[in-house]
Amino acid sequence: MFRTRKIALSTNLAIGCAAAALALAAAPSIARTDDSMTAATPAAKAPLIPRESLFGNPTRAGGQISPDGKWISWLAPSNGVLNVWMAPTDDLDNAKVMTKATDRPIRQYFWAPDSASLLYIQDKGGDENFLLYGVNVETGVETTLTDFENTRVMVVGGSDRIKDKILIGLNNRDPQYHDVYMLDLNTGELTELIENNCYAGFVADANLDVRLALQPNAQGGMNFFKVVDNEVEAEPFGSTGLEDSLTTSPAGFTTDGKTLYWLDSRGRNTAALTAMDVETGETRVIAQDEKADIGGSIRDQKTGEVEAYSVYYLKNEWVALDPEIKASLDFLEANLTGEFGISSRTEDDTKWIIGNDPVVGPAKSFLYDRTANTLTELYVTRPELEGAPLQPMHAMELKSRDGLTLPSYLTLPPGSDSDGDGVPDKPVPMVLLVHGGPWARDGYGFNGYHQWLANRGYAVMSVNYRGSTGFGKDFINASNLQWSKTMHDDLIDATRWAIDEGVAIEDKVAIMGGSYGGYATLVGLTYTPETFACGVDIVGPSNLETLLSTIPPYWAPVVAQFHERMGNPNTPEGKQLLIDASPLYKADQIVKPLLIGQGANDPRVNQAESDQIVEAMKAKNIPVTYVLFPDEGHGFAKPSNNIAFNAVTENFLATCLGGRAEPIADTIEESTAQIEEGADFVQGLKAAINAD
Residue 395: exposed, middle, or buried by beta-carbon count in 10 A (0-12, 13-18, 19+)? Predict the structure, then answer.
């Protein structure tokens, strides 16, 4: 919920400290179809892909190369929990585990600029109070670098020039604001640089000098201030209003500090990549696209100048500005199938780690030697998927009733589309899978949830409804104050399209999603109660008033934007908007089956959001199935928990839509799942509980 785009300030240091939303699906192995669970659909002839293979631990993932090129690291299970492993670049068989996580998987890690240590962030039970840890490469000694209670670390900057230090933000003094510190990675010493009492973020240069401060304004936008000698200037040098707040942000300095890059939608619809002369303020446009915001960029390792940029409309496309980078990208495109991206680069830029998404196969990781022009496969993320009946994803454009173009993605059950035109030979049951955010987007590529649900016999549609990011500010701003209104209309229009085009059976469409997608599910079953056959709500809010009153304190700097886009609870008009858009107050309208999954430690969407609507339904004797995980937050990080909830989900959908499902078996026992309500409403669930 409330995911916003983060700009990487350095291609060497890709360090996002926001918690992942829903756990991504993993790769499957092949299992024999359980005939007793098989529906009369084309998919019934395909092998049933086991949940364990889709949602369990990957064999390896997250490959990175150290800046000095001596080591390759990755995430892999150790005693069943994802940990960081490392091996010499020329001897991957001589690998050793570097971290000692025994409960929650490590999902975000990175190399220190000096290659002397591996760094990772970890929270407790999904509370998103992330701490920073370091592991010395030579000694294996692990250190808690931010040893504080109830503190969330943010990485402000790193540099190839000052390799033994990084800039971090800590909210241990005031939970609303992150003070800026210099962290010595060798000694652990913290030196405070800026005490922060009003700023949402900072931008540093290659010398680890803080150069910019970002402060939210009353309009729901952002003011930009220069910082000199760790003092923020009194007056901003630029600003945005609400309309540009999600599409305009600084994107880092060149190494000499003379040029500041921006992703900037001011004066245009889509965000352009621009370069501003710091001294004069003169700005030039490097790249722009009519349909999509400029996305990522590749920077020169020495100068920090942009060498290539990406445009992501239906699919991601790279455009090279530098001839050598172009040659490398052309080589990769010619030798890889599907989508690819650069995971990490050595300091001298001679070696890249490439992540490859074949779309209908398991992800792979390669070492690309740019000097020798060779591509060496490092690993297959989930080898169990090789040979599995994975299905292509169809990218398409749909139209809303008021004329907006909705970039969308559709996956069909195996055997249902004999001519491959993206429309099944006859209509099939469908799951409308709604992304979270809402300020995020669905994209093209391998999607474990698409593959899982398609394998069970369902068409799966993901729609970039208005408010989704990446398609310009007009598309985002069309969602302002439209929760449960035109945002929901877009989902209904996509469903209608699928029915009219012969993709979906009219009375066999489910709605499902996490975070905002969970909210959309609740809206679907309350505001349009006859449209969907059933719904699956994962960590979705039911009451927008209580949602906004319980957001994490470190979101306080941007709460004005939430008020402008959703409704301001401090005004009578805004409060009424929130009430009118809250499914809780329409719970008595629910007439179709509902499954809810919730983490007890969720800091974004508190457990109370699920508890409230469950209690409202119980008061009206409306059936609901409610699964609670006491050791999870905003989504289910532990594979055993994710597998358990998805076991319940697919059997719930089989009950509702008639598709296939693996038996729940012992997944509940192997997880921390608590079935709070409605075990009787999901096939096999009560038996699984009693078997415990």
Answer: middle
Residue 154 lies in a domain: no
Q: Which of 515, 542, 582, 610 is catalytic?
A: 515
CB 629 within 8 A of CB 598: yes
Distances (CA, A) of 115 to 144, 164, 205: 18, 9, 20
Whether 310 is in a domain gets the answer no
Alpha-carbon dihedral 291, 296, 297, 302, rounded to 10 degrees:
160
Which of 553, 554, 556, 543 has the alpha carbon at shortest distance from 611? 543
8 Å CB contact between 540 and 463: no
List Cα–Cα distances, 153 to 106, 174, 393, 459, 554, in angstroms: 15, 12, 37, 41, 11
Residue 27: band (very low, low, confident or very high) from pLDDT cuts 50, 70, 90: very low
- 173-229 pLDDT tens trace: 999 999 999 999 999 999 999 999 999 999 999 999 999 999 999 999 999 999 999
Q: Are 118 and 112 within 8 A, CB to CB?
A: yes
Quick check: 681 pLDDT over 50? yes
Alpha carbon separation from 417 to 412, 420, 423 (Å, rounded)? 7, 5, 6
Query: CA-to-CA distance for 109 and 15, rounded, in angstroms?
Result: 8
CATH of the domain at 479: 3.40.50.1820
Which candidate, 94, 203, 196, 220, places its Cα nearest to that of 158? 203
**Structural domain count of the chain:** 1
Write out pLDDT tens, residues 555-612: 988 899 999 999 999 999 999 999 999 999 999 999 999 999 999 999 999 999 999 9
578 three-class SS: helix
Residue 10 confidence (pLDDT): 31
Q: Is 515 in the active site?
A: yes
Distance CA(405)–CA(408), nearest Å, equals 9
Q: Is residue 283 packed enough to be buried (19+ CB in 10 Å), middle (13-18) or exposed (0-12)?
A: middle
440 phi and psi angles, rounded to 5 deg: -150, -165
Domain extent at residue 430: 393-543+590-691
Q: State the Cα–Cα distance between residues 180 and 201, nearest whole angstrom.
A: 9
Residue 604 lies in a domain: yes
pLDDT in tens, 630-663: 999 999 999 999 999 999 999 999 999 999 999 9
- The pTM score is 0.93
Are the C-beta atoms of 393 and 422 separated by less than 8 Å? no
| Pairing outcome for strands 428-434 and 459-463 | parallel
Residue 634 falls in the annotated catalytic set: yes
Residue 315 lies in a domain: no
Residue located via tokens 């990084």 = 166
Note if 602 is an active site residue.
Answer: yes
- Tell me: pLDDT of 11 over 60: no
332 has a pLDDT exceeding 70: yes
Whether pLDDT at 473 is above 80? yes
Q: Which amino acid is at 603?
A: P
Long-range contacts of 420-426 (CB under 8 A, 24+ apart): 420/392, 422/394, 422/396, 423/501, 423/502, 423/503, 424/42, 424/459, 424/502, 424/503, 425/42, 426/502
Burial 311-335 (b: 16+ CB within 10 A, else e): bbbbebebebeeeebeebbeebeee
User: Pick the catalytic residue: 209, 293, 357, 602?
Assistant: 602
